Amino acid sequence: MKSLTKNLTLKDYAITIVILGGVAYGVSRVIKKAKERSTEKKAELETSENNPFSAQVFLKNIPAGTALLTQSAARAYAKTIYDAMNVYFDEDEDKVIYSFAALPSQTMVAQVVESFELMYKRNLLEFLKNGKKTFDFGTGGLSSEDYQRILENVKRKPKYTRNK
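Request: output the structure for the sequence above.
Response:
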């Protein structure tokens, strides 16, 4: 064993360190993704009239006089979000964040969610997290910070706004 360690060069040690570093990075990414998934599941899975990302249930009991988007406006927001994320590299996070920020109520967010899912046959929240990617190389989709920012922004909006 002593003769084996004497024959190792600095290059051998460097290669070993690079390989171990790559393995450690990969494991840390898996752990980070698992933690993110557990905290985000509530917004994604909670099907209730209080969750605008559960559009079909949310939109069932809208009070009379509630301000609504036109169907074409909801589609335009959905297309803007899709086009900003439907790339292989360099999503336009600002466009996505702005699209949600520009909607004054959770009802309008739900309308955009419904339009998005009808047009693209994809869950909007999953699309925001993953983007267009087919394989997970640690890229694609919004960063956790941007994703949480959108969820918090929508959560703070009033459920309904009235027509003026």
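The mean pLDDT is 83.
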